[in-house]
Amino acid sequence: MIRQHGNRFARLQDYTASQEALRISLTATDKCISKIRQEKNYAQKDGEVAGHSSQVHEQEMLVVSKQSFHVLSHVCRSVDKFEEASKCLDRIELYINEQRSRDDELYSQTMVQLSARDRGSTAFHQGSSTFALEGKLGRVWCVFATK
Amino acid sequence: MQDLEEIKVRAQSARARAREVESTERVNLAFSRIDLRQKAFGTLSDDDEKFVDFQFNIMVECAKKDSATSTRTSKNFAMHKTIFTAARLISTRRLLTLKEEQGKHMNPYSVFAIIFSDRDVQQVHVHLEDLHTAIMAAKSARDSTTCNVAKIQALDQRGIEIGKHLISQLRIISIPVSTSSLLKHTESTLFGGQVKHNDMKPLLEKARAFCTKGVSLYQGQEHCADQTLEWSDILLNVLEISRESKLPGGSDVSEIQYDKVVAGVMAIRAFTQSNCGSYGIALKTARAAWEKDGTELGNLITLFHCALQYESFSNSNTDSIDGCTEPDMHAYPNTLLELDGALNVYESLSKLEKSNDINYLQKLLEAFPLLCKIGLEKKVLLLGLQRRMIEISIKVTTNMVSNEVSEVPNERHHVSSLFGVLRAYLVIFEELLEKFFFTKEKQWQLDQLVGLQSMLGSTLDLLLLVRDGSIKEKHNGGDILLFHDSHSYLEENAHPTQSSNTAYQSLFDLSPAKELIGTQNECLWIGKSAVLSQSIFFCTMFWLKKL
Are residues B497 and B370 part of one domain? Predict the structure, then answer.
């Protein structure tokens, strides 16, 4: 909502108000992302699996963040703050790279597990067909399926 | 087992989707970086240029990967649009600001075009965008005060070269599928030769629009005749390809419309050729344009201009009937003959199109002020033009009066009234009568006299028609409309308040008559002038015979 206001202010060329709104939006999304990641870290330390909803939530926050940085970069460029604009773009690139490594990791994890299962006992294959929707594989499947 | 396979497939497709999203994000990011770098620094250093190239390469790589995997054309279109915008930004800046020694940087369009095969429509789209950028850069250079002549010429030349290259490419890809299958062996890609009609249509429309921009950029500008000729040639080629590649039954544009467009471009070409001094070729081109579209008045004016230029600057009128040494006093018989032929064509074609409509003559009248302007310095020619204009004006006005038109059409407001033209004609007639007419041969003199008499007679008939029409109205309870004699008219004008009680009203007070024919004052002037001109003419003829 605040990001949208920032966007509107930018369109109206009220760059000061736009910067304010976008900074608030980015602070909020940053807090959310760090909280989600913190929870994820705690869960990993405890040997648990992070919930699917937190993954989706993190991704949504990242998308909002990227959009805000794009608009903020445009606003900074309009008021001749080129350094800041460049930093905004760097942050976007960082998010894209992080996303890429997460996707790759998740994909390779899935493939490794799938091939392990494939090579595994036939008993496993003959087991419950709903197994894949539970546990780690279920999580992976859900993450991919909801992207 | 089935579940595992399903998960695998889903994971793969999800990953592919994620890659597509990432590509789009990276393209947008690279675009923002290029834009930022270009705006942040007025003049870019070599390192900055390398950075820009690097970012553009990222965009192209993303597009390459995306076009290989994605089937969603709308997404590809959006990505290509971003890349085109980036290429335009880079290319325009480089073309306008970089000097010769700095011109070693890559052309972004060339980099982008490489990812498509030779017979791919997308590659032609890239070249078209390059062409557009070249045209706009040439325009900006011309508008700018800082660009030197050499730079402007180089940009002009670049645009023309891209245009020519584009024509050859369009020719290759527009070959129908059946023919192109013969060429299939020479292609690197299996389906490279098959270009769908649906893909070709927007491509050719785009090509047409950009080449039209090229023509309109140079047309009418000083010292740009060569460029105009080149661009009109390119545009004619594009139009020809458009016509050739049209599939039977699926055309939106009819042959007649194509002819009209082609005729328009040919007329521009003829006008430019004429201004370049190629009068003979210009006249031929103008004739060809008129043959293509004999209903467009612009083509008629161009034909007249070219014919006049040809006759003025060639030796064709040295043996003319007058033997006159003053160029302004030549009769320009060939030009008038050309005009008469064109007028006949126009009349016949317009009659074919709209059999009972007199509007085509009304439109024709609108062309005469321009024709008169072209022949303004040549008084005898001007006399001929005015004579034709008066004849048409009488025809149109008679038709309107006969049909009891109550309002003057809007088009007519741009054209002088009948008396206005007649008055101008008589002024020139009188001027030429004394010093020029009797240097010409008798047949020509007689023609002029007959013409004058015929015009005056037709005008009088028209006035009678108006009056008779008014008498009819009188019987139906209208006012009495009469011609005033000059004495009463002047008296009435001297005391306008007294005349308000009179039962008589001049026919020139009627709104349509006043606008179409003229005022009573003009009528009186013309009457006197015509009598005087004819008297002088007859007297001089008589004395010449005696002598």
Answer: yes
Q: What range defines the domain where residue B493 resides?
A: 359-546
Which of B24, B31, B36, B89 should we substitute to test contact with A (largest number of A Cβ atoms within 10 Å)?
A: B36
How far is B17 from chain A, CA to nearest CA, in Å?
8
Residues 6 or more apart whose Cβ sits within 8 Å of residue B397? B418, B462, B516, B517
**pLDDT digits 0-9 by tens, B167-214:** 988 888 877 654 544 444 444 444 444 455 567 788 888 899 999 999
Distance from CA of B8 to the nearest CA of A (A): 7
Chain length of chain A: 147
Q: In total, how many domains does chain A have?
A: 1
* Residues in B touching A52 (Cβ below 8 Å): none
Residues from chain B contacting residue A132 (CB–CB below 8 Å): 3-4, 7
pTM of the model: 0.72
Which domain range does residue A75 map to? 2-145
> Does A63 reach chain B within 8 Å, measured CB to CB?
no
Q: What is the pLDDT of residues A52-107, one digit of tens each?
A: 677 788 888 888 888 888 888 888 888 888 888 888 889 898 888 888 888 888 88
- Give which of B467, B458, B465, B455 is closest to B424, Cα–Cα: B455
Low-confidence ranges of chain B (pLDDT < 50): 178, 180-194, 249-250, 317, 320-323, 477-480, 496-503, 547
- Please indicate whether, in this complex, the C-beta atoms of B22 and A100 are within 8 angstroms of each other: yes
For residues B188 and B42, membership in a common domain is answered with no
Q: Is this complex scored with an ipTM above 0.95?
A: no
Residue with tokens 């070269």: B161
Return d(Cα B175, Cα A69) in angstroms, integer: 48
**Eight-class DSSP state of B175:** S
| B15: nearest CB among A74, A92, A103 | A103
Residue that terminates a domain, selected from B221, B253, B285: B253
